[in-house]
């Protein structure tokens, strides 16, 4: 069986419950999530040493959940009973973030994407995740969507920021600080 169907040759694609143009906000949202998933796959391949076993396992789980996010956004009609993304996924991400942040050095200045190849890849994941979140919000302003997907993407970008810093820390490479800034983070008074 060939992988091509020719059904999209006129600029439309199938979603759950109908067909839309390939530049539809729905396709743009789940397509950006698909792009993010590819970058997460790349980051996973860079987390190949034993010191990143925990991270690699989480990234593989996140890749599954990103497919769930795309699936939930592919519904033309609201179908809460079939949604796969739940509030618990975001809560679990918060626990992971807290764990990694406890391992990271205190953050005093803005940081630039960089350091190790793995940290750089995770920063790409973070920025593509933010774009996916924006696309999901655009879609949600026009139609009903699973809001847990939007929340998950928001928390996931925070996760990528935290683990990018951890990747640098574990390999003893400092974060790249933005030098034109004073100390902007620290203890709240």
Automatic annotation (TrEMBL):
<protein>
    <recommendedName>
        <fullName>Corrinoid adenosyltransferase</fullName>
        <ecNumber>2.5.1.17</ecNumber>
    </recommendedName>
</protein>
<dbReference type="InterPro" id="IPR036451">
    <property type="entry name" value="CblAdoTrfase-like_sf"/>
</dbReference>
<dbReference type="InterPro" id="IPR029499">
    <property type="entry name" value="PduO-typ"/>
</dbReference>
<keyword id="KW-0169">Cobalamin biosynthesis</keyword>
<keyword id="KW-0067">ATP-binding</keyword>
<dbReference type="Pfam" id="PF01923">
    <property type="entry name" value="Cob_adeno_trans"/>
</dbReference>
<dbReference type="InterPro" id="IPR016030">
    <property type="entry name" value="CblAdoTrfase-like"/>
</dbReference>
<keyword id="KW-0808">Transferase</keyword>
<comment type="pathway">
    <text>Cofactor biosynthesis; adenosylcobalamin biosynthesis; adenosylcobalamin from cob(II)yrinate a,c-diamide: step 2/7.</text>
</comment>
<feature type="domain" description="Cobalamin adenosyltransferase-like">
    <location>
        <begin position="3"/>
        <end position="167"/>
    </location>
</feature>
<keyword id="KW-0547">Nucleotide-binding</keyword>
<dbReference type="GO" id="GO:0008817">
    <property type="term" value="F:corrinoid adenosyltransferase activity"/>
</dbReference>
<comment type="similarity">
    <text>Belongs to the Cob(I)alamin adenosyltransferase family.</text>
</comment>
């Amino acid at each position: 069986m060939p992988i091509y169907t020719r059904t999209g040759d006129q600029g439309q694609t199938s979603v759950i419950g109908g067909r839309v143009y390939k530049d539809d906000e729905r396709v743009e949202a789940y397509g950006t999530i698909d792009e993010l998933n590819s970058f997460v796959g790349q980051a996973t391949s860079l987390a190949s040493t034993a010191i990143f076993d925990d991270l690699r396992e989480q990234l593989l789980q996140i890749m599954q959940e990103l497919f769930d996010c795309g699936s939930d956004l592919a519904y033309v009609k609201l179908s809460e009973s079939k949604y796969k993304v739940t509030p618990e996924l975001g809560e679990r991400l918060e626990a992971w973030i807290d764990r990694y942040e406890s391992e990271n050095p205190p953050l005093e200045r803005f940081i630039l994407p960089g350091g190790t190849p793995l940290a750089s890849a995770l920063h790409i994941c973070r920025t593509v995740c933010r774009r996916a979140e924006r696309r999901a919000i655009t879609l949600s302003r026009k139609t009903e969507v699973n809001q847990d997907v939007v929340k998950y993407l928001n928390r996931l970008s925070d996760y990528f920021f935290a683990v990018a810093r951890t990747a640098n820390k574990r390999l003893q490479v400092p974060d790249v600080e933005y030098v034109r800034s004073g100390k902007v983070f620290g203890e709240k008074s």
